[in-house]
Design goal:
The chain is an alpha/beta fold. 37% of the residues lie in helices and 19% in strands. Strands 2-1-6-7-8-9-4 form a seven-stranded mixed β-sheet, with helices on both faces. A two-stranded antiparallel ribbon has the order 3-5. Helix 4 links the parallel strand 8 and strand 9. Helix 1 packs across helix 5. It starts with a strand and ends with a helix.
């Protein structure tokens, strides 16, 4: 599910490729809105996010992952970090308060990928991000 284009022209949750947020958001703003915990010790909260993609299949995440994309998933295996590294994804948000294995945390630290965990499920996490992006589009011209 892509959360795209926060100006309302096509603010949808769907498989919309090649859409970017009109005004990029800072990762720190999205973290605050989702009430996510940061799991990595040296995250860069000032990362610019232009796309948000949520999915639960590696193939979907691989096809939608890109630089400046926040990936939201319930997958907590090491493969998700390999996808992030391959696609230059700066941040991954796990849902449902998933506790990742120590190996996942170690690889995230090593590669500089920000690893987050949302206390909410996929639907609620995406809804909160949508609200945040919609509110930001009303504030910024």
């Amino acid at each position: 599910m892509a959360i795209a284009d926060r100006l309302g022209r096509s603010s949808v949750i769907g498989n919309q490729r090649d859409r970017e947020l009109v005004t990029p958001m800072r990762l720190s703003d999205l973290i605050r809105n989702v009430e996510a915990r940061i799991l990595t010790t040296r995250p860069s909260r000032d990362v610019e996010i232009q796309r948000v993609y949520a999915g639960d299949r590696i193939s979907d995440l691989l096809s939608q992952g890109a630089a400046k994309t926040l990936m939201i998933t319930n997958l907590s295996g090491i493969q998700i970090l390999h996808v992030a590294e391959l696609m230059d994804v700066p941040a991954i948000c796990l849902v449902n308060d998933i506790a990742p294995e120590p190996e996942l945390l170690g690889v995230a630290e090593e590669h500089g990928t920000v690893l987050l965990v949302s206390p909410f499920g996929m639907f609620e996490t995406c809804g909160r991000l949508y609200e945040c992006l919609h509110a930001a589009s009303e504030i910024r011209p």
